[in-house]
Amino acid sequence: MTEPSLSDAVAFAEANESPFPRDLLAHLEAGHFDPPPHNAVIGPVFPRGAPNGLIEQGGRRLAGWGDTRQADMTFSVAKSYLSLLAGIAHGDGLLPDLDEPVRRRVHDGGFESDQNGNITWRHLLTNTSEWEGELFGKSDLIDRGRDLAREGAGPKGVARPLQAPGTHWEYNDVRVNRLSLSLLHLFRRPLPEIFAERIMDPIGGSRDWVWYPYDNAWVEIDGRRLPSVPGGTHWGGGMRIGAEDQALVGRLVLNDGVWAGRRILPEGWVKQSLAPCPLNPSYGFLWWLNGAGRWPGAPADSVFAMGAGGNVTWMWPGADVVAVLRWVNPDKVGAFCGMVARALAR
User: Fold this and answer.
1) Which residues are registered as beta bridge partners of 323?
2) What mean pLDDT comes out for the span 262-272?
3) Model pLDDT for residues 68-87, shown as the tens digit of each residue
């Protein structure tokens, strides 16, 4: 049997387009993530473009398809960008101890209850916080019991009893948004400004991307009205960005946070971020991992930033590969990665 080529992998990606329709607003309002009234969109949403992507090795482009500069909503890939910003805060001394309760540095009332008082930054970064509350009109209850394997088809919003922080893993957008707001309190400046100045500009990124807040996600800090950006596009808003910029971010992570000899992320942050969470070996600090084989076919050391609708940044440290897929069928990601791996081994 002939091993696939990179051209075969590209053709496979092109042939397996995302099931998400081009009209993303209608898709969200139809209740893909949540039934009414929880599906109410509270931030900007733009129609998506055509599938596109690229494959790079050692920083050299090996293949590409579609318009790789097309800026589109990227959904939960933005969670991984929040992880990078937490690293910047850590390096700046704003977040010196990941196991310190968040309430010691964030005093906005979000961590004062018995349930929330012992939540640490590590809990928020690993989706184990069990934070309870409402943020920007969305309750954490909306995502309780969420099963990503049945996203858009299974029941959620289960009124299960909350566990102690750090004892239960659950994918939850409201809690990630709570992390984002907490980082805003540390930096005391809009996170998109920090992301541009400290990450994207140093690595040669464009300014074509925009990180949108929800319409109601504005808070007052030091007498200034500042936006708090979400870690996804669950209810609109979030990061709108192109594949080429996403590939640069992936390359930064593969380079252990160093770019052209300059350290962008603090030493050791990437290693910490990609360590498996004890409660979910497929998850790190808002990065997906494949050591437990969540994506069959992909190399075991694969790392992913994953967004709904088939928006993927794939990093394969073993071969120094970065690939970005926009609007691919999520069920085909592992097979695509396997095809690339076999092609490069020819």
Assistant:
1) 55, 314
2) 98
3) 999 999 999 999 999 999 99
**DSSP per-residue string spanning 302-330:** -EEEEETTTEEEEEEGGGTEEEEEESB-G
DSSP-derived secondary structure letter, 246: H
The CA distance from 73 to 193, in Å, is 18
Alpha-carbon distance 228 to 299, whole Å?
36
Residue 15: half-sphere exposure toward Cβ, Cα within 13 Å: 8
3-state secondary structure of 288: strand
**CA 193 vs CA 92, 165, 188, 226: distances in Å:** 15, 31, 11, 11
Helical packing angle, 243-254 and 77-91, nearest 10°: 50
**Residues 110, 276: contact at Cβ < 8 Å?**
no
Residue 104 tokens, joined: 């010691």
pLDDT, tens digit, for every residue of 180-221?
999 999 999 999 999 999 999 999 999 999 999 999 999 999
Partners of residue 226 on adjacent β-strands: 219
CA–CA distance, 59 with 319 (Å, rounded to integer): 11
Task: Give the pLDDT confidence score for residue 305 in this predicted structure.
Answer: 98
Tell me what pLDDT residue 8 has.
97
Side-chain half-sphere CA neighbours of 281 within 13 A:
8
> Average pLDDT, whole number, for the chain?
96
